[in-house]
Design a protein that fits this description.
Elements lengths: L5 E4 L2 H8 L6 E3 L9 H14 L1 E4 L4 H13 L5 E4 L27 H10 L19 H6 L8 H11 L8 H11 L2 H9 L2
Parallel strand pairs: 1-2, 1-3, 3-4
Length: 195
């Protein structure tokens, strides 16, 4: 389902599970890494302001610590909270269950994740409203702009990341997702011309 809000999860396996049910920008907190990463938090705040944010963390104690941190760091009117049920078990990739013995986001069936997002009030886009403005940037656009796949692309990307106040270690793929989430094509064109 296509939804308007960006979703924040704890890690990459959670991101993979959620991407199977939601077509939107999905970001990771890197677990407790978000506590020390001012750039990541600033990006989450900007996304919350621009399109709204859904927090979807595990139902264990660590998940609630991260959720509560984000609750206090991002304006509450711009954040929705999706909750998964407490289900005993372990994820297939793990040898042993977590400390509390509960399945996390990555271990939830797709329908459970979908229901959690809908209960949280996710804005489902029905095809009549554009998910993003027409003309989304593509990897080919980044190449044409000299931001990937060319000599000095990393330096150009780093300069653009600084100008846009985005995290400095974003890959070209992450930059592409952030640009499409934060700017219309016209806004981005204007920003790039001001170089």
């Amino acid at each position: 389902m296509r939804i308007q809000e960006a979703i924040v999860v704890e890690g990459r396996y959670d991101k993979a599970a959620v991407s199977a049910v939601a077509d939107t920008l999905i970001l990771e907190t890197a677990g407790f890494g978000v506590f020390k990463d001012a750039e990541r938090l600033a990006l989450l705040r900007r996304l919350a302001e621009k399109r709204g944010l859904i927090v979807l963390t595990d139902s264990d104690g660590a998940g609630f610590v991260i959720r509560n941190y984000l609750k206090g760091a991002i304006p509450k009117e711009r954040v929705k909270h999706a909750y998964i049920p407490d289900v005993a078990g372990k994820e297939r990739r793990k040898r042993a269950p977590g400390r509390e013995g509960k399945l996390g986001v990555e271990g939830m069936p797709a329908q459970v994740l979908r229901d959690a997002l809908l209960r949280a009030g996710a804005t489902v886009l029905d095809g009549t409203a554009p998910e993003r403005p027409a003309g989304d940037l593509t990897p080919a656009d980044l190449f044409a702009l000299g931001l990937s796949g060319v000599p000095d692309a990393a330096a150009r990307r780093a300069e653009l990341l600084r100008r846009l106040d985005l995290p400095e270690h974003m890959s070209a793929k992450a930059l592409l997702a952030a640009l499409n989430a934060l700017y219309t094509p016209d806004e981005l064109d204007s920003l790039l011309k001001d170089r």
